Amino acid sequence: MKKDIKSMTLAELSLELKAICEPQFRAKQVFTWLHRGVKSFDEMSNLSKDLRRKLSEEYFLTVPTVARKQASQKDGTIKYLWRLSDGNCVESVLMQYHHGNTVCISSEVGCPMGCAFCASTLGGLVRRLRPSEMLDQVLFTQLDSGLPISNIVLMGIGEPLDNYDTVLRFLELVNAPEGMNIGMRHISLSTCGLVDKIDRLAEEDLQLTLSVSLHCPDNEIRSKIMPINRRYDVDTLLAACRRYFEKTGRRISFEYAMIRDVNDTPEMAQLLIKKLKGLPSHINLIPLNNVEESPLKPSTRAQVASFQKMLTEHGITATVRRTLGSDIDASCGQLRRNYEKEGKEQSDGSIRTD
Ligand code: SAH
Question: For residue 313, how far is its CA from the centre of ligand 1 (angstroms)?
Answer without folding.
Answer: 26
